[in-house]
């Protein structure tokens, strides 16, 4: 083996290693079988494959003198020539990928809408949800009768007196901001839109509804006010009014409240740096204390943003988080909180694949929210998905 062949072999080993690394990283993110979610990694994967193929052929041609036997090359290829050829092919491949990606994205942009579906699970724990037996989506922008909606999103489920209520964001084409609407169902599968129940001068989303002292409260996303605001229902599910500001000072997004071990807990993301913060209090109406481990997650767009209500089941705590990288809201991960005290916090991701990932036309672009409710021995979940109508 001459020096050039050894150099080809070294380059081949490096390119193969990088190709395997890309494939493994995509697999760990749970995206291996969903090419639409690769983002920039799709281009990198193509480039790595092209480079590996070129170097392999150059090595084989030189090693076995193919150019001499079939006249494929009239002269030996030098490494500099090989690099120039590789760069040209890489440039053409990358440019073609970008053109195709931009064309397909723009051609489908006007058909891209977020809708709401219902998933179910027979698991003992709130995982492994499927929409297989439901005619999804159950709510779309076309169901909104008191506004011209661009999309509906961020559903939260409440089960009260044998009836299901779903609170969700309605993004208005008229005002270019979100309001909070409600829909009702007697079986959790078939839904009827009711009306907008909360409308402010600023954008509202993510209506986290909960019960405290037999009263219903809501913590919607109010990042525009640089605060977390609490609202109270005076005639559930209608007539919501502002109660008080819980925390201020940041652009908080998707704040999620839950009760565990005689304490109220609140997750919220800082919109500016993709970090997750945790607060606690002895009552939703009292002072909230910042957890000493904050930020719980620092600058990680894959797992920092809450993606639905926290579930406490048989002393196990499940947190759901939307994956916002490389694109906003492309899938949802599930975590189990293994330690939660006023001084410590630990969690572990459940599995290596997301709990939500789009499969059908209505959610193929991405899914970013799940709200779970336990009815008897089954779990039902409201989810949202971004797809094509």
Give the overall average pLDDT. 86
User: What would you say the CATH architecture of the largest domain is?
Assistant: 5 Propeller
What proportion of the residues is helical, as a percent range?
Answer: 10-25%
Strand-and-helix sequence, N→C? Answer: HHHHEEEEEEEEEEEEEEEEEEEE
User: Which percent band covers the strand fraction?
Assistant: 35-45%
Question: What is the strand tally?
Answer: 20
| Structural class category | alpha+beta
CATH class wording of the largest domain: Mainly Beta
Unreliable runs: 70-75, 99-110
Q: What is the CA-atom radius of gyration, in angstroms?
A: 26 Å
Counted up, domains total: 2
Q: Judging from the principal axes of the Cα atoms, what is the shape?
A: elongated
Outline the biggest β-sheet: 5 strands, antiparallel
Under CATH, the topology of the largest domain can be stated as Tachylectin-2, Chain A
Count of helices? 4
Structure overview:
This protein has 389 residues and is α+β, with helices and mostly antiparallel strands. The protein has two domains: 106 residues; 275 residues, 5 Propeller (Tachylectin-2, Chain A). 22% of the residues lie in helices and 40% in strands. The protein contains four helices and 20 strands. Strands 14, 15, 16, 17 and 18 form a five-stranded antiparallel beta sheet that branches. The protein has a four-stranded antiparallel beta sheet with strand order 2-3-4-5, with no helix packed on it. Strands 6-7-8-9 form a four-stranded antiparallel beta sheet, with no helix packed on it. α2 runs antiparallel to α4. The protein is elongated, with a radius of gyration of 26 Å. The termini are far apart. About 5% of the residues have low confidence.
């Amino acid at each position: 083996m001459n020096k050039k062949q050894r150099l080809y072999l070294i380059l081949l080993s490096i390119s193969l290693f990088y190709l395997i690394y890309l494939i493994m990283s995509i697999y760990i993110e749970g995206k291996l079988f969903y090419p639409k979610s690769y983002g920039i990694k799709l281009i990198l994967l193509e480039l790595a494959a092209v480079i590996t193929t070129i170097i392999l052929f150059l090595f084989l041609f030189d090693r076995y003198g193919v150019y001499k036997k079939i006249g494929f090359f009239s002269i030996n290829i030098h490494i500099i020539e090989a690099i120039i050829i590789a760069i040209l092919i890489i440039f053409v491949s990358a440019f073609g990928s970008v053109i195709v990606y931009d064309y397909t994205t723009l051609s489908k942009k006007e058909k891209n809408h977020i809708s709401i579906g219902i998933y179910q699970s027979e698991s003992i724990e709130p995982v492994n949800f499927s929409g297989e037996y439901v005619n999804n989506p159950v709510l779309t922008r076309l169901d909104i009768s008191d506004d011209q909606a661009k999309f509906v999103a961020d559903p939260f489920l409440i089960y009260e007196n044998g009836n299901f209520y779903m609170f969700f964001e309605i993004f208005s084409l008229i005002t270019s901001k979100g309001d909070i609407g409600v829909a009702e169902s007697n079986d959790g599968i078939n839904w009827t839109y009711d009306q907008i129940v909360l409308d402010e001068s600023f954008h509202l989303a993510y209506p986290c509804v909960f019960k405290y002292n037999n009263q219903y409260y809501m913590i919607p996303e109010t990042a525009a006010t640089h605060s977390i605001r609490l609202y109270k229902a005076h005639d559930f599910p209608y007539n919501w009014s502002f109660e008080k500001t819980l925390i201020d000072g940041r652009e908080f997004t998707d704040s999620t409240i839950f009760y565990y071990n005689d304490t109220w807990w609140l997750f919220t993301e800082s919109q500016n740096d993709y970090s997750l913060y945790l607060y606690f209090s002895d009552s939703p109406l009292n002072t909230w204390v910042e957890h000493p481990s904050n930020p719980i997650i620092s600058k990680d767009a894959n797992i920092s943003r809450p993606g639905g209500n926290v579930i406490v089941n048989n002393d196990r705590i499940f947190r759901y988080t939307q994956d916002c990288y490389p694109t906003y809201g492309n899938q949802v991960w599930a975590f189990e909180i293994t330690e939660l005290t006023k001084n410590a916090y630990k969690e572990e991701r459940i599995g290596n694949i997301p709990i939500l990932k789009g499969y059908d036309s209505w959610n193929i672009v991405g899914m970013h929210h799940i709200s779970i409710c336990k009815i008897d021995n089954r779990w039902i979940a409201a989810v949202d998905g971004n797809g094509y109508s």
